[in-house]
Design goal:
single chain, 226 residues
């Protein structure tokens, strides 16, 4: 892989020009990040992503016209390789949660320090998710108990492809356990848990841990009382 191939291509999406300018200044100071474009709403973001093929989209949630949730959902369908990192001025509310449910790989507040933002971009670019223990806890506590069950035949068929051990790991992920906690509960090494979870994401066609937790609730694998 060449140095050019290793560079992370980023698309910035925000309806405020000053915010986009500030984000560009932060990111262009990094040797391994290229800002390939900007967009001021979700519709522009979709068009730009199709044209520019970014690795990561920094997506504002609340925008006029096509908002970040709709744009994230569209990108997850059209360009599943593109990773969406949600940026918002709000803590975990229904709007931000909607973006995660639509397929975003992570969630950050706009007052996040520049170094944390850059680190999050690198994290999602390599295929991991930016989902803190606090965020997962808030999902389980506030948002997930209100989810309606989803009768998704395709996902139930994928679920049946999991091995018994993968089912055990999926259940505990759905309950909000960390890899270290799962390793302890199942008497496995943490690296083995990570390997199992990687296969779970592949079999269930999920981008991140957040989507795995959401799916576990939607399919009734876990419930509000677990």
């Amino acid at each position: 892989m060449t140095a050019e191939d290793a560079r992370i291509r980023v698309l910035i999406v925000d309806d405020q020009e000053l915010v986009r300018y500030g984000l560009r200044l932060v990111l262009e100071a990094e040797d391994d990040i290229d800002v390939v474009g900007e967009a001021s709403d979700g519709a522009e973001a979709i068009d730009a992503a199709v044209t520019l093929s970014p690795d990561v989209v920094l997506m504002d949630v609340r925008m006029p016209g096509t908002d970040g949730i709709a744009a994230t959902r569209d990108l997850a369908t059209r360009l599943p390789r593109v990773r969406v990192l949600v940026l918002t001025t709000y803590d975990l509310d229904e709007v931000a949660f909607g973006a995660l449910r639509a397929g975003a790989a992570g969630f950050l507040l706009k007052n996040t320090r520049p170094a944390e933002l850059v680190g999050a971009i690198r994290t999602v670019a390599r295929g991991d998710a930016v989902t803190s223990a606090r965020l997962t806890s808030r999902l389980i506590e506030v948002a997930l108990p209100r989810l309606a069950p989803r009768d998704d035949r395709a996902q139930r068929e994928r679920l049946s492809s999991l091995t018994d051990r993968e089912c055990d790991v999926f259940l505990l992920v759905g309950r909000g356990r960390t890899n270290a906690e799962i390793a302890r509960d199942l008497h496995l090494s943490e690296s083995t848990v990570k390997a199992h979870f990687g296969r779970i994401l592949t079999k269930l066609d999920l981008p991140s841990r957040v989507q795995a937790v959401i799916l576990a609730y939607e399919l009734g694998v876990v419930g509000a009382d677990d």
